[in-house]
Specification:
By secondary structure, the chain is mainly α. Helix content is 81%, strand content 0%. The chain contains 7 helices and no strands. Helix 2 runs parallel beside helix 5, helix 4 runs parallel beside helix 7 and helix 5 runs antiparallel to helix 7.
Length: 134
């Protein structure tokens, strides 16, 4: 009985590690693309940086979850995770159109621009996840 329950453990480990790699890669790329240093701002207790980055991470994770659920294999999951990363980068630049000084305002501690960016990222992630219908 226990062995039957653990039969899926190898696949779990592979996909979970794949997701961790995807999230790590996302954070590595995203914080270098944005004009503000999210981790420095978070270390300096700037809530907006945590809000925008956290919601962006959720917005990225939703399509990764969808890819893990629907992908034919791990490579397929990584390809769709890369697409999700690209979508989030595009959203960052699109969110700057109505708020051109977005990063500067987040760095100054303003919450409204951070919430705007975070929720735009989350919305894009939800749409991205739903679009992965294979």
């Amino acid at each position: 009985m226990v062995l039957q329950s653990l039969a899926g453990l190898p696949a779990f480990i592979v996909y979970f590690c794949t997701a961790i790699v995807a999230v790590t890669a996302y954070l590595f790329v995203y914080v270098r693309v944005t004009r503000h240093d999210e981790f420095l701002l978070i270390r300096n207790n700037v809530p907006g940086a945590a809000i925008s980055l956290g919601l962006s991470l959720v917005g990225f994770s939703l399509p990764v979850v969808s890819a893990m659920t629907h992908a034919a294999n791990v490579i397929d999951c990584l390809i769709w995770s890369t697409i999700a990363l690209i979508v989030q980068i595009i959203v960052y630049f699109l969110a700057r159109i109505p708020v051109p000084d977005l990063s500067d305002r987040i760095a100054k501690g303003e919450l409204a621009p951070a919430i705007w960016l975070g929720l735009a990222s989350l919305a894009a992630g939800a749409l991205n996840a739903a679009s992965m219908i294979y």
